[in-house]
Automatic annotation (TrEMBL):
This is Lysine 5,6-aminomutase subunit alpha. InterPro entries: Cbl-dep_enz_cat, Lys-AminoMut_A, Lys-AminoMut_asu_sf. Residues 523-542 are annotated as: Disordered. It comes from Effusibacillus consociatus. Residues 4-510 form the D-Lysine 5,6-aminomutase alpha subunit domain. It comes from the Bacteria.
Amino acid sequence: MSKLNLEQAKIAQARQFAAAIADDVTRYIEKRSTVAVERTVLRLFGLDGVDADGIPLPNVVVDHVKEQGRLAEGVSRPVLNAILQKGWSIREVGEAVASGNLNLFALDELPEEKLWEKGAELARASLDRIRENRNQRSAFLQKYGDSPQPYIYVIVASGNIYEDVVQARAAARQGADIIAVIRSTGQSLLDYVPYGPTTEGFGGTYATQANFQIMRQALDEVGEELGRYIRLCNYCSGLCMPEIAAMGALERLDVMLNDALYGILFRDINMQRTLVDQNFSRMINAFAGVIINTGEDNYLTTADAVEAAHTVLASQFINEQLALRSGLKEEQMGLGHAFEMNPELEDGFLLELAQAQMAREIFPKAPLKYMPPTKHMTGNIFRGHVQDALFNMVGIMTGQGIQLLGMMTEAIHTPLIHERHLAIEAARYIFKNARHLHDEIEYKRDGIIARRAQQVLDQATDLLEQIQSIGLFEALAKGMFADVKRTTTGGKGLSGVFMRDERYYNPIEEQMHLELGLVKHPKSTSRVKAPEVPGPAKEASV
């Protein structure tokens, strides 16, 4: 039952509007692909490495297909044909293209049935590897048990992956449940994924598969020492969103920042590019059992937290519906929101409580990601510590799923190890002392908190109705989220979007459709059927 006495019919209406918006977007994006999607297919087939100039081989091959004017068919068909014709591995094919010794389209094309058979074989092998990672996560959670929610989530951001390991191990020993390795500033705007371990980054560390592997191994080692499973988080957003999702799935990351709108609003990435890429990246995360974190909290850094609260809720509804259409379960949706109201506001704590409790009731299965105060943090570290304590109190009072801890030096510099320790110590103290407060609290039916929550729900429903009538693209152009306006043809990455023609083939997508129970590609019925593969083992905890 709703503690806030929220109007259930209004929630259903808002969800219906969001579903219509998501269906409209899905119809649009299913006719398109991107260079990032095609590079992801190659990575999942097993293509890795760089050419003599340091350019990633997936980029080299996709650019080759594009230069030949054949990208509308996808990269799978010519690459699979070369593998079969030459008897080479995909790495050998990629290196031959990179050296100029192979033109993929100079080879006669084998019968489609042979290509489909090989494509299904490579797709199943890739997903089997991801399935094994998911099963291994389940085994760790069954062995060690799971921490109570909210999970304590902290960040490391040294720029050097080996220094990040030192910081991450320290944070785990201090009590962190999730370690997020912040990406280097600007990586979201790179249309390629850097290769290998990296030791230089500004404001964070580059997201590479080698760095994922290094950190995963380090957290497994410290987890064995502590008798706990430590979750690893990174960022599959930006121009390489699906590629990073694939690398995370292959290296057993557990949490991924993966928002449908964040890149559009805050990185000026073209909306067509982002919406196509988020769909494929979320399929991968869904299959890998990864919890996604969405970025609605960022809206309140550019818009007022009181006036724009309903835009956060509206975006949560849209993110939920788009995620469902990619195969994600509600238990994997770390929908985002934040404690960002001006601390000078009278009864601001009550308004924060209303927002958090409302989100908890509307999305009961989601491990909601609650973000700390940042906009109104100052150089006063003592007041900052109190603000963070109030934030932690709301988190435990409303049953949030993931609590990204604030640091008292948030407005000064990247936190030092001892500052992270103080933040974890404070959060653990509050969470333990108020562990079951959520179960004990009831709210006054006509009080400030209940009335505020219903007001935000009403406004969000009205906004969703407007968006449903004009479409998401037009809503983004009008600046309905975060007071930021974008256009359908503006931003970065539009040149990487293309229409699929009738010969388009993506066996990874088709296999994931089968495994996730999604609507099959229209042409799948005419192709060689992949054998049924058992779904991932049920996890002790998502």
